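To start, one record:
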Amino acid sequence: MIRKMKEKFDKYWGECNLLMAIGAILDPRFKMRLIDFAFSQIYNEVDARTNVMKVRDALYNLFFEYVEVDHARSRKGTILESSSTSTHSVSKGKLVSSGLMMYDQYLDTVEIHGPLKSELDVYLEEGVFRGQDGEVSVEEFDALVWWRSQELKFNVLSKLARDVLAIPISTDWVRQLHGIKKPIMTYEQEEPIDVMLQTT
């Protein structure tokens, strides 16, 4: 019995659970530091490094998918906006851009662009969020509220965080893993049992 349970546990947790790891990273109290710490406790050094890289790669791939979608939406919105509200004038059959568009083009030529960091890079490089007492608080912190307050700074990453952190995670997997069909009852749901004590 114990061996079967251990096999099922190892099967479930043997490979790192990407969704839970990404969710932990998107909690500003933990970020990548929790993954580094936890994996070093769970796995040997080589497996820990391998699994950390799997999580990091999955997170970056997911982030860049969100970036692509956001850019596509922006381009679509810009095209619609410029065709309907832009102040273009026609001069001898040629379309002349507005002054603001020409200024943008000018800036592109004169400003030196260094390697830009992504929102995800900036987020991961910042320290973890700590409560007023300087400790990582578990109570009275809502990561979704924090991300909502950071939408201007992390435009795309906040959308990713909102989507990932809103995924409901339950204990149903425990019942499925162990083949339990009956729902697990909490203390409050249990029915009282009548016990008769025999006195002598």
Observations:
- The two ends are 40 Å apart (CA to CA).
